[in-house]
Amino acid sequence: MYKLFIILSVVTILFIIYSEWSVGGILIRSNSSGSKSINIRSMLNFMINPLHKTFLWNIRSLDINYPFVILCTVISYKLFN
Question: What is the pTM of this model?
């Protein structure tokens, strides 16, 4: 179980980096003063958004669909362990 937690943590960090690179302006955003700041709430909303919006479950947006990525990771972990 501990190993799965480590794997999910690494996948989550990689997902955040990839999403910021791919989509941009999710975690690092301009604030009201015009400087860049980290917006964790925005990233968390982005990560759970597919649970609320079904259009994010199309084939072209699965790479930025956090629940899908986590589901694939858990299935892969279970198959190979």
Answer: 0.87
